[in-house]
UniProtKB/TrEMBL annotation:
This is Adenylate cyclase. InterPro entries: ANL_N_sf, CapK_Type1_Caps_Biosynth, CHP02304_F390_synth-rel. It comes from the Bacteria. PANTHER family: CAPSULAR POLYSACCHARIDE BIOSYNTHESIS PROTEIN (PTHR36932). The lineage of its organism: Bacteria, Bacillati, Bacillota, Bacilli, Bacillales. NCBIfam families: aden_form_hyp.
Length: 448
């Protein structure tokens, strides 16, 4: 590990927090960074050299947008470290099977995304980028300065050299495999007593329940949610159990996108990347992010459209940061529900996940956990876990709220049936709102 690169990234991140006085000043700095980055990448990547041939870097904000399919199809020519997709995939799958995540190809770390969108992604990170990532994330998420000792418990589906980079005498990193039994995790955490706890919301929920039962006693300085959408219902439950603000790190194959400040506000990491919004509902500030990461050249991410539905925060954060803030991560476009227009019986009308989420939460204060799946435009499957009360009455209220949502959108009310709720924390990401049929393509896209 390049410790000097790590320390430089750490200090640089702290310095940039207060460098910019206005959004215009920040945008100008980002523009300079992006243009220099694009000139470098275009000379090193055969894919980008061909894709953006003849286009002026000054107009980069209007360059063609890339999809995940294009990104993975062009893998061999796109990356600048000479690694083939087959070679990378073979190593990543072997690591998944053996649970040994220490292998690299030369000086490059290879990882595999969890594939919640249905398409598993491969990421490449050089040793220098790995050190820079570690320094950046330490500056943004550690509760104390770098010279203070920390014990970090990190729950992941798969470990990686990327995460092991933060291991040092002062930073004790403890990887916990999501495939292991929850009882084993409880015993290990009780012994470790981590100062920082990092896990998906589904695992944090199980740990919070163990704490409420008196089976686990933890007092971490910081609790960080990763990998899954942190639903308001889960956030409230976990926060109450830990008596702490629940922080978030928003990271994916395509980059370290956002992290929370001391107030718990999720700010875009505009010191390492640019996110351009592609609005799908501008009035409600909903958009798909188009990412250009100017900090990572081994596998460049340029004008890449991510399939997540985000909402900008309107109010300025009390922390004073100029970096844009995200109000909510609603889910993926694949989780967008569709209803059938009640007038013509043909047109598909989109229903955003937030409407489904609100319908469940408004139905009853006794709702502790839930899952809603759309099996077809006319069929919803709902699983609800209640704190107490009449199940039949709660189900009737849930059915009514969901019916009202579809009617509000001018759609025929779907058939709503119920099933037993069960939460399995493990390698598969929790998605409380999920469309089970089709994709948001020709079949399911709204018309008119």
């Amino acid at each position: 590990m390049n410790k000097l690169a790590l320390l430089f990234a750490y200090m640089r991140t702290l310095r940039l927090r207060n460098r910019f006085r206005t959004r215009e000043e920040l945008a100008a700095w980002q523009g300079r960074k992006v243009r220099a980055f694009l000139l470098k990448v275009r000379s090193q990547s055969r894919y980008y050299r061909s894709r953006y041939d003849g286009l002026a870097v000054e107009d980069w904000e209007q360059w063609p947008v890339m999809s995940k399919t294009e990104f993975m199809d062009g893998f061999d020519d796109l990356n600048t470290v000479g690694i083939s997709k087959n070679e990378a995939y073979e190593l990543a799958v072997k690591a998944e099977m053996t649970r040994d995540f220490s292998s690299k190809i030369g000086a490059v770390t290879v990882g595999l995304s969890s594939g919640t969108s249905g398409h598993r992604g491969i990421f490449l990170v050089s040793d220098r980028e790995r050190a820079a990532w570690a320094g950046t994330i330490m500056a943004k998420v550690l509760p104390d300065p770098i010279y203070k000792k920390q014990r970090i418990a990190f729950f992941l589906r798969a470990n990686s050299n990327l995460y092991e980079t933060v291991q040092s005498r002062l930073l004790q990193f403890h990887y916990l495999d999501l495939l292991d039994p929850i009882e084993q995790h409880i015993a290990r955490l009780q012994e470790l007593q981590p100062t920082v706890l990092v896990a998906p919301p589904s695992m944090l929920r199980l740990l919070a329940e163990a704490m409420n039962r008196g089976e686990l006693r933890l007092q971490p300085k910081k609790v960080i949610s990763i990998a899954e959408v942190l639903e308001p219902l889960d956030e409230q439950y976990i926060r109450h159990a830990f008596q702490s603000v629940i922080h978030q790190v928003y990271q994916c194959t395509e980059g370290f996108l956002a992290s929370t400040c001391t107030h718990g506000t999720l700010h875009i990491n505009e010191d390492v990347l640019v996110i351009q919004p592609e609005y799908i509902d501008e009035e409600r500030r909903r958009f798909l992010p188009i990412i250009t990461d100017f900090s990572r050249a081994s596998q460049p991410v340029i004008r890449y459209r991510l399939n997540d539905i985000l909402t900008f925060r309107e109010e300025p954060c009390p922390c004073g940061s100029l970096f844009k803030a995200i109000e909510t991560i609603e889910g993926r476009m694949d989780d967008l529900f569709y209803g059938i227009h009640r007038e013509d019986g043909q047109q598909r009308i989109p229903v955003f996940p937030d409407f489904i989420r609100r319908a469940i939460l408004l139905s009853s204060e006794a709702v502790m956990e839930y899952r809603v799946s759309q099996l077809s435009p006319m069929e919803l499957e709902v699983a609800v876990k209640l704190e107490s009360g009449n199940n039949a009455a709660a189900e009737a209220r849930v059915r009514q709220e969901l019916t009202d949502v579809f009617r509000l959108h001018g759609c025929l009310p779907p058939d709503v049936h119920f099933t037993t709720y069960r939460l399995d924390a493990g390698p598969t990401k929790l998605r409380r709102i999920k469309r089970e049929y089709g994709t948001a393509g020709a079949e399911d896209a709204p018309s008119g």
